[in-house]
Specification:
heterodimer; A: 180 residues; alpha+beta; Ferredoxin Thioredoxin Reductase; Rubrerythrin, domain 2; 9% strand; B: alpha+beta; Glutaredoxin; five-stranded mixed sheet; two-stranded antiparallel ribbon; 31% helix; globular
């Protein structure tokens, strides 16, 4: 069990680091933080409270808060999808809290609804043993601007180091050489 | 979350019912128990005395999730919560006060 205060401190610290603010309404913010806490308690990681998590880390990785979509959403709309992170003018009440459309691709959303993806170690049933687990193919990506390397299914939307756009990421193709 | 219907032999999702004075429309809500927008939607409906039923999708079984997905996509909606279905046909994605007021005539 993670303490709610810890969840709050983590969000505050992350907002500060990246120049964001937390949702201006204390009650709404409290609900978001409690949602994050519930998800961390049941899944072991703070999946987005406003999205359906599968309980399988490999499938939920992109929606672990702060999610992959936060930076482009705050940049484009002024808030992230759930509303935890907002821009300064939204935090100060100068702009209304926007309605943010879902940026997560549908193919990724529907994985949480597929029975095979639900089989976590604790939840395994007899059926799960014969079901073929969904395979997430991870690749190595590097930022051509700063050299940051990440091993994930897709390239980040924004480079966490130098803030380069997604287009600046290229896949690292690994070659195995056999000698002699 | 499942109850068992002996007559049909089909497993049914456990649906929560919230009573309200205004039952002119059949209002159904797919929500997430952790979602702040879903909580706001439930509160908005209660504040307006709207009778509604809801399911917290994150507490559903695998079999139910498949039904939820099919139901939402069949009605032309997307899988972002809350999903509000009015009279089995009109679907609203997200907490849209303006649309809710219009569709529920409040």
């Amino acid at each position: 069990m993670i303490a709610l205060e810890k969840v709050r401190q983590r969000a505050e610290s992350d907002a500060k680091t990246y120049g964001y603010y937390l949702h201006p309404d204390p009650e709404f913010l409290q609900n978001l933080l409690e949602g994050l806490k519930s998800n961390e308690d049941r899944h072991g990681y703070p999946a987005c409270p406003c999205r359906l998590a599968s309980g399988n880390l490999e499938i939920d990785r992109d929606i672990i808060c702060p999610c992959d979509y936060r930076d482009p959403d705050v940049a484009e709309y002024g808030a992230c999808y759930c509303g935890l992170y907002v821009k300064k003018d939204v935090a100060e009440g100068k702009s209304p809290v926007p309605v943010v459309p879902e940026r997560r691709p549908v193919e990724k959303q529907i994985r949480s609804y597929t029975p095979t993806t639900q089989a976590t170690a604790e939840k395994k049933t007899e059926n799960a043993a014969v079901e073929k687990p969904l395979e997430i193919k991870k690749k190595l990506w590097y930022c051509r601007q700063c050299g940051y390397v990440v091993y994930r299914e897709d390239q980040p939307y924004v480079c966490p180091i130098c803030k380069a756009k997604r287009e600046m990421f290229s896949e690292i193709a690994l070659q195995t050489m056999a000698k002699g | 979350m499942l109850s068992y219907d002996l007559k049909s032999g089909e497993e049914k999702m456990k649906i929560e019912k919230v009573p309200g004075k205004n039952n002119k429309n059949k209002v159904f809500l797919y929500a997430l128990s952790t979602c702040a927008w879903c909580k706001m939607t439930k509160q908005f409906l209660k504040d307006n005395q709207i009778e509604f039923e809801y399911v917290d999708v994150d507490k559903c079984t695998h079999e139910d999730l498949d039904k939820v997905k099919k139901n939402v996509l069949d009605l032309g909606g997307s899988l972002s919560y809350p999903v509000i279905i009015v009279n089995d046909k009109t679907l609203i994605n997200g907490f849209r006060k303006d649309l809710l007021k219009e569709k529920l005539d409040i």
